[in-house]
Specification:
single chain, about 475 residues, mainly beta, Immunoglobulin-like, 4 domains, 7-stranded mixed beta sheet, about 45% strand, disordered N terminus
């Protein structure tokens, strides 16, 4: 099963837009509601705490009345809002929507208002509405993963042919709209209930699954996906067949087949009017350890990664200066079914890596080691006897007691196997004084010399596995006694 949108992503949904629109509705003594005409949803607020509210919808073109009736919902305290998901019922202009708690009844006739085009180059929003009808426009600026604030709202009036537009760039403050900003058109009746139509095309690129999941397009839009690999002269390197966007902003999938999407590729979705681009980022999951409950991975240094363990536990982490990130610990049991890590650009399109143990996605855990703990530089004297100590340092991602000492080897490459084995070990020392006991392994110095490892300035690698089979890899540099760095 493809995991497209995780909770930690909190992408800007149409329901969230309705909530934010409600927050700027003029204050009045009555409850109010908003009908999301292209999201099949109703958001309402201002009811007395504990009131039992029922939603009905009548299509006047049919003999059935009501055509839809919700289950009762209990209003939360303090007039807070709550929503009705209409499921398969398709709300349309002309429908008569009514909410009641038995004492107060609010009603609204759905207006035929829509967004038809967003011109990102010239910062103009276009739409339709009944002739000479006033339409409100709300622009919501977002900073993933949270809705940040409203940029502004504007109003315009449809012309005699039912067309309207708002030139945001020409407004007094001047707005630069970009794909991913929430844009909502609304028509408000004289009781401050309103019809809304949202625009927010967004997508995730599944690097491990070689597919793209997108949502938020206008119903019926013909969407084409292209991918450009900037390292080749061909542009685009991939172009999909057209797909028709379903109603209500629902999502749909582009399966890339044999095309292997990679970091650096530029993915663009377009319906001929709106172009939504995203450059695939270099994010990875290197290990999900069932022993420690720790997830590790890589990304560009100092960039943010949102991690989902697959069971509703989410964490935002930042890659360190070497490009490594660590998340958790989570419940180890929860890691078995898989999860995701993702990075999102300024307008919330994302690169998504999914993982599971069934995929054998666990590659290795990078560990920190210290050859000849306490010495700097690490000076080794070549001799025919004795041993060289190497500390494997414990961390939040590594309990050294989980290391299978029989697998630990030292070598001049990071490929497990073929190295010099540990001849003696201890976990009783905290060599770096961080409060965590470290594993100190001793390796035969003559054997290291015979294997050609003892070269001044050489980088040596420690490899091994945890008891659950997870590979660990660490490295450090050595110098030789008598050389330019050792006195």
């Amino acid at each position: 099963m493809h995991k497209r949108i995780s909770i930690m992503g909190c992408v800007l949904t149409a329901v969230a837009l309705l909530v934010m629109l409600a927050s700027v509705a003029p204050a009045n003594a009555l409850p109010n509601f908003a009908v999301g005409v292209n999201t099949n949803s109703v958001w309402t607020w201002g009811w007395p705490a504990g009131a039992t509210v029922i939603l009905t919808i009548d299509d006047p073109t049919t003999p059935t009345n009501p055509g839809y009736e919700s289950d009762p919902k209990t209003a939360p305290p303090d007039g807070e809002g709550f929503g009705f998901d209409l499921g398969s019922f398709d709300v349309q202009p002309g429908h008569y929507v009514e909410l009641t708690d038995g004492l107060t009844t609010e009603h609204h006739t759905v207006m035929d208002v829509a967004l038809t085009w967003v011109d990102y180059d010239d910062d103009i929003v276009y739409g339709t509405a009944p002739s000479e009808t006033e339409v409100g426009l709300v622009i919501i600026e977002t900073h993933f993963p949270y809705i940040e604030h409203f940029k502004d709202d504007a109003a315009t009036t449809a012309d005699t042919e039912g067309n309207w537009h708002v030139d945001l760039g020409a407004m007094s403050m001047g707005y630069n709209i970009i794909p991913g900003m929430g844009i909502e058109a609304k028509w408000t009746d004289n009781e401050w209930d309103f019809t809304s139509f949202s625009w927010d095309p967004t997508f995730n690129v599944g690097v491990t699954s070689d597919d793209v999941w997108t949502w938020g397009w206008p119903a019926g839009a013909t969407v084409i996906l292209t991918i450009d690999d900037p390292t080749t002269p061909t542009n685009p390197d991939y172009e999909s067949d057209p797909q028709t966007a379903p109603p209500d902003g629902d999502g749909f999938l582009f399966d890339l087949g044999s095309f292997d999407v990679q970091p650096g590729h530029l993915v663009t979705l377009s319906d001929g009017m709106t172009n939504v681009p995203h450059e695939v980022t270099n994010v990875s999951v290197t290990c999900a350890s069932a022993y420690t409950g720790i997830l590790t991975g890589t990304a560009e240094p100092d960039t943010v990664v949102w991690v989902d363990n697959g069971h509703g536990q989410n964490e935002q982490v930042t890659a360190d200066e070497d490009g490594n990130w660590v998340a958790g610990p989570f419940s180890p049991h929860d890691l078995y079914e898989g999860g995701s890590a993702q990075q999102r650009d300024q307008v919330q399109n994302g690169t998504l890596i999914s993982w599971s143990f069934a995929d054998e996605f666990c590659v290795s855990i990078p560990v920190e080691i210290d050859i000849k703990p306490g010495s700097d530089p690490n000076c080794i004297k070549v001799s025919k006897k004795g041993s060289t100590p190497v500390a494997i340092l414990a961390s939040v991602a590594l309990d050294v007691n989980a290391i299978d000492v029989s697998t630990i080897q030292i070598d001049n490459d990071d490929v497990p196997g073929g190295g010099i084995a540990c001849v003696k070990s201890s976990t009783k020392k905290d060599v770096n004084k961080d409060g965590l006991p470290d594993l100190v392994c001793h390796f035969s110095t003559p054997d290291m010399d015979s294997a050609g490892l003892l070269v001044d300035g050489n980088t040596l690698y420690i490899t091994g596995t945890l008891t659950d089979g997870t590979t660990i890899i660490g490295s450090d540099i050595i110098n030789l006694a008598g050389g330019p760095y050792c006195f």
